[in-house]
Amino acid sequence: MILAFSGSAVDGEPYTDVVALAHRSPGWFNDAVTVWSAYGLALFAVLMTVGWWRSRRTGARAAMTALAVPVAVVAAFGVDAGLKALVRENRPCQSLRVSTLEACPAPGDWSFPSNHAAIAAAAAVALCFVSRRLGAVAALAAGAMAVSRVWIGVHYPHDVLAGVVLGGLVAFVSMTVLRRWPRGLARRLSATRLRPLLVS
Q1: Is 163:134 a contact under the CB 8 Å cutoff?
Q2: How would DSSP label each residue in 144-181?
């Protein structure tokens, strides 16, 4: 187990600058950022569903690739959660005396790397294997998610950066492996009860 550490020595000053800027920003904007930070991951689920639905028109192999996207995202979350338990970095709102937009998570809810950033980045990278357009939309949303986590005060900048890199890397490796289906597998599965999942 790696000893718990405080990330304030890494980028505590940029973090406090962002939090201070948030407090000087309009209330409606902060409300929007807070809602996005809390519920924005639902957008990635919608994009994954759209990607799968459209891929069924292309063929069973494309649909299987689209169905691999949530698997890649879950894998990224698992790696992120494991690293978080090893590093055990305290949340910045616990280590620094700052007032944040979001209530500070309880002690033991570790900060590094950001789960939200990892999930969002993993979804964006994995969706690029399905559709460049959906991947581009997801990439923009992932960037907004990462920034929002610092803006509301629950993560240091290095937390979200690490989450983006980790999530994107795990998703890329996972999708590269998962889409290498054996020849004929898509055709065989299309002849089973799984057909509605693979072709329209």
Answers
A1: no
A2: HHHHHHHHTTSS-HHHHHHHHHHHHHHHHHHHHHHT-P
Q: Give the tens place of pLDDT for each residue, 64-88.
A: 888 889 999 999 999 999 999 898 8
Q: Give the separation between CA 86 and CA 21, rounded to whole angstroms.
A: 32
Burial letters 44-83, b for 16+ CB under 10 A, else e: beebbebbbebbbeebbbbbbbbbbbbebbebbbebbeeb
Supply 135's token pair.
């991947």
With cut-offs at 50, 70 and 90, classify the pLDDT of residue 166: very high
Tell me which residue of 200, 44, 56 sits closest to 127, measured CA to CA. Answer: 44
Q: Which amino acid does the sequence have at 19?
A: V
Enter the pTM of the model: 0.86
Judged by phi (left if over 0) then psi (alpha if -120 to 50, else beta), residue 59 lies in left
Q: Which residue has the tokens 């290498």?
A: 180
Among 187, 13, 185, 3, which residue's Cα sits nearest to residue 89?
Answer: 3
The mean of the pLDDT values for the chain is 85
Contact call for residues 4 and 89 (beta carbons, < 8 A): yes
10 Å CB burial of residue 19 (0-12, 13-18, 19+) is buried
